Amino acid sequence: MFSYQKKLVYLILVLLCSTSALRSQNSFQVTLKDSTYDDRVNDAIELSNGLFIIVGMRIMPQYSSLTAVITKLDAYGNQICQKLLQFNGNSSCLSSIIKISEDEFILSGITYSGSSACLWLCTLDSSLNVLRQKSYTFRNYSPSFSKIKMDYQNNILVFGVVDSLTTPYSFIFKLTSGLDSISCKIYNEKWSFGLDLIERSDHKGYYFLVIGFDFGSGKILSVDNDFNIERITVLIDGIGNHGTIRLIDSTHFIICGERAPPGNPSQSIAIQLYDTNFNLIHYIYYAKPDTVEFPALFKSIDFSDPMSVFIGVASNFQFDEFAEVDTWYRLNNIDTAFNLNWERYYGGDGYYTMYGIVATHDGGCLMYGTFWDYHNITDYTRYIRLIKVSKDGLLSDGNGKSGIKLKEVILYPNPGTDRVTIETALKNIVVSFFDVYGNLVLKKSIQSMVEILDVSELSSGIYFYRFTCGDKVIDSGKWIKK
Question: What is the model's pLDDT at position 404?
Fold first, then answer.
């Protein structure tokens, strides 16, 4: 009896500790790297127990080969296990993952045999063991990119892009959870790229976000359950590329994507809220002079609470993952009225590319992407960089790991010449520049979220900058003028 009581007390303690771990605000920063290969991350999910599964791709140019890399991490970012996969030994990559039960996951990707490409689907258990896998061909079309989701009937929906010679077309493919084909639709009327897909709240079809179907803005294809187009809606003001769409409730959805109006070379981030009659309710545009703010490439918006919507951005993006400039992950948090709750930056010590975000069960957010440490290495090798923050966008060092710093104000380029750009969502900020002798050489009040300073009167050399708000020092660092 005493032994049974001890076991019961132990079980209760374990359950309490597990519940505490799920509710606590864990944060971490992890670099997954193999210095031999170039790595990329495509998708990530959080499990109900607070663990994470990361789907990546290893590029091995010396073998002209791709290998899928799937990594399982605990709630603190520690690696539990990792699996390298190829379909039948061929060059293969996986790009998307969904959970179908607590112990089973489905992933989609592409596998290659010579110059021929096939869609590749596989299911894994929680130990990352392969349960089953299949490849699928699309007549004269070659799949080049895919994402995967599940509808309310537990059907698997794979969507993305197939190519016919040099022309891309969007597609949707429906399967059973056992990976048996149900139906497929290739929209080969006009070239297009399938970006994101959500099921309509009435379960009578889907909203398919695409770029293409003529030039200009992105489009939403309202399709029925057999994927027949019922309506095409043109998104307002050039929004679309690298877009993500999510239902806020049964009658509203939110879209985030690149804004590139026709005839306007500038690019920015656009967030738009529509009702299901396609009336525009709210919008925000983040326009940045002299730089490019780009939405996370595969998944730029996510939330578990619609009053706390996360927006993932690559700040100072260069359209080249091996550009020798410093960039940042930027994370914004807004409510459904598009009021900004906070904005924070992470990185600045190399070239960061954000691929996506995951709103986590504890109210926080996981950011995933790649990092090129061009300051310290000369080869073209990217590492996978994961940053998990609290609901307030904060990082703690409770796990004892050093690493990236959170910033609420950034200054670039560094080194620079006659102008520097300052970005911040904070109010009443003052920046001061000092020479190497400590003399104040420039002081400026920051009046907007993005401000460009003329520093042409400063001589070439090393300067120290300091951002203050009242008597509080917000940030400081070294800036070099070339």
Answer: 64
